[in-house]
Amino acid sequence: MKRGAKVRLAPILRYNAWVTRSLIRVAAAPLLAAVFACAHVPTPSGPRALPLSRQIAMREEWLAKRHALVLEMLRRHQIAMWIVVNEEFHDDPVTQYVAPPRPYAGGRDFFVFADAGDQGLKRYAITGYAEDNLLRFFESPEEFRKVKEGIQAVVARHDPRSIGLSIEPRDYRPSRGVTRSLTRSSYEFLAEALGPRMEARFVPAGPLVEEYLDTRLPGEREPYAELCAATEDLTRRALSSEVITPGRTTVGDVRRFLYDRLADLGYGTWFQPDMRVQRKGSAGQLSRGFLGVAPESVVIERGDLLHVDFGLTSFGLNTDWQKMAYVLREGETDAPPGIKNLLANTNALQDAVVRSARPGISSGDVYDAAMNAMKTRSAEGVAQGRVPFTAQIYSHPLGTQGHGLGPSIDFRAASRNEPPRGLRKGSYVAIELNTKAAVPEWGGQEVFAMEEDPAELTDEGYRFFRLRQTEYYLIR
Description:
Strand order of the largest sheet: 3-2-1-4-5
Number of strands: 18
Distance between the termini: 66 Å
Radius of gyration: 30 Å
Number of helices: 11
Strand content: 15-25%
Shape: elongated
Structural class: alpha+beta
Mean pLDDT: 90
Helix content: 25-40%
Low-confidence stretches: 1-43
């Protein structure tokens, strides 16, 4: 360059800017790739579970209220002493509801409730160790660390006329795992420690266990409603375009989404999330009279009618939830009328159950009233030119277990020869049911509309915790 020559800065500055941008692009490429990759991973948005310490504190507050109900229950069921036995690596399903919901690692622990007459209820924890949280609820002196001598001393102190245990009824009436959970080894331990005189007083505690677990507390209502809201949120997300791309997403993809969100949000579940797929020209497999679960390999297509069965577990309570979605075909803005009519029939069946139920009424009477109402509705519809339909009700208690103890409004109850049982005010139930009818738009193919919603029994009937589904979720 000649001295004194004018320097043309613009081209140089443009070149330097281009070099700088190129270097930035090269340096940032891995970071950008990671960002874009992360953009395809669903975020754990949604209602989160309470921290575990808060769950424990809440449940221990409920526990004190539950213990206040035990004495009347013992007397109502004519049980003088109730013993719950917990084994290491084999927790009794009742333990977390009669004792503080914390880990128990003793080889064999006993939680004892005794009717002490005028002295009221006496509570003892005969455990391998005791700490302050346990001692807030039970008497557990140091001599109880020797569990055999401890259980002998407690029984001798009260000389109970009957001892309730989680054992099978002697006449083998229908029972559930939670009411027959005492192991043979623990039964033999008690029989040997207490002797033949006391063994003769062992009685099944099943009816007591049922009432204890099926009795809901007022303080449980609001947290449980929030748990139902979280269940609804996750189910709605699973049955949406956030998760489902027609022609690409599989049933297994939806299941894995739900599993991963459970982990992200801190919830548990008590059964595997299931999906059912109904498709024009493909009736689907039946299982025990119900529409079977779709294999994970099934690809979701446009025009499919989808159904998800899902539930959450948190703070010792469980939800059970079923909802449906329709995958729109190209050009559709809603489900076909015949498919929409199915859901309207199922809503009418829900109404019939809600209207028929009252505290004290037999679950069988509620079932009969609801089914008779549906037969009338179907017949009236046929007279007006509508397609006939059939209905099934298989509703069950809900709460401490997903399939809880208590009266079921269920077509299968009669086949089990269950005695009539009245519905308990305040108890929770999963109103689970379906209707089935031929769909004209699908060439007369029979299709199910299946719903399930948690509800609480009030003096006016069942009250849903969330608004029920009256329209299908639509996937575009």
